[in-house]
From TrEMBL:
IFT52 GIFT domain mapped to chain residues: 16-147
Organism: Mesocestoides corti (Flatworm)
PANTHER family reported in the protein's UniProt record: INTRAFLAGELLAR TRANSPORT PROTEIN 52 HOMOLOG, NGD5/OSM-6/IFT52
Example GO biological process: cilium assembly
Protein name in UniProt: ABC_transp_aux domain-containing protein
GO cellular component, one term: intraciliary transport particle B
A Pfam family the protein falls into: IFT52_GIFT
Amino acid sequence: MRVPIEKERLSAAGVILFDQSKGEAASLNQHFKELQRRLKTSWKILVNTDEITISRIEAAKVFIIAGPTEKFSVNEFEAINTYLNKGGSVLVVLGENGESKYPTNINYLLEQYGILINNDAVVRTSYYKYFHPKEALIPNGILNRCLMYIYI
């Protein structure tokens, strides 16, 4: 369901904006039903299907990019950077194998903030309580070395 983004509607409640403009592998209504159901009680959930601009995303508390399969333009990266510099929050979700499986350039944005989506996956090689080998518990799992030095 596509909901038009209107300024007066955005100011009434906290908004979580899902991006669906880059052929996302995960759509809000198909892959995030449970999350949407839980968030709807406190948040207004909207979907962006148009080009990403600062005017479209600035009123959102959280901007979610889930599994983009198309490349972002320079203007879209500038809009997201402006949004982040103004205090906005972005959640980027990508599947295993990163950009090699999803033909996007999202790492260009993430690298500016010291984040990188790797082209690999964590696989458990011995039996444990989880059913699937890719359901792996990583205790004390801070993978970004910079974060380890800051918070330890």
